[in-house]
Amino acid sequence: MRRAPAAVLAVAAVALATVAALAVSALRPPPPAAERGRRLAERLGCFACHGPEGTRGAANPGRTDGSVPNFEGDLMMYASSPEDVRAWIRDGVTPKRAASATWRSERDRGALRMPAFGGRVSDAELDDLVAFVLASAGEPAPADPLAAHGLARAEALGCTGCHGAGGRLARPNPGSFKGYVPPWDGADFAELVRGRAEFDEWVRDGVSRRFAAHPAARFFLERAVLRMPAYGERLQPGDLDALWAYVAWLRSAPPAGAPGVSPAPPAPGARATPAPPAPPASPR
User: Which superkingdom (predicted)?
Assistant: First the structure.
């Protein structure tokens, strides 16, 4: 029996790898609005002045404030509503600031000035950028005390380091099955967490029993750069209840200021309002 030439085997291997890559790509749902906005902001050069993910504004000589505002702590000094954020991005200024001679003089003294992106982005892209900026600023925030406590605990436990502001981003995770850390309001979240019991397992043990028992799932979990920690010994009484309340709230609420974006469906077993207990730190 003749052996296939090495060149034929190489081509076949490349073809199989391509098909596999396309299959995985097809399994990736569109990211949530805030993540789409983050990726777009990076492509548009926003982080050159506002810093990595808008967290550290560059120095701006000539201005009284001395630096470009960041999205985390400075936003509400410049924007009091989602429409204000939209105006800053679209027009480079809000109508109120544009009408102020004092503000115009201050702007003209600065070395760096906010550009107007209205002619460079679509309305849908503008919605995504607004969703990202607001998410970075912690908006919208849950009014329910239990959900709000869940967000605070998620931040204290370090969950938002990988899952992004409010658990709304999909940061890269090389080696994982889909290549990113899943956001808590993402369309594929329900594939990873089937109800409250699995929620608890992921947070407490770092993996659900279902995934731990699946050889293929274990393979991708073990080769991922970022791996879900086991928080069992670090949880405080009531943490699971609060964390789940926040995730349930997040999955029931549309992104603020993004009218073109529909809210993600609630997690399986979740009520439309914050209630059941469970964790936000979902699998990688």
Answer: Bacteria
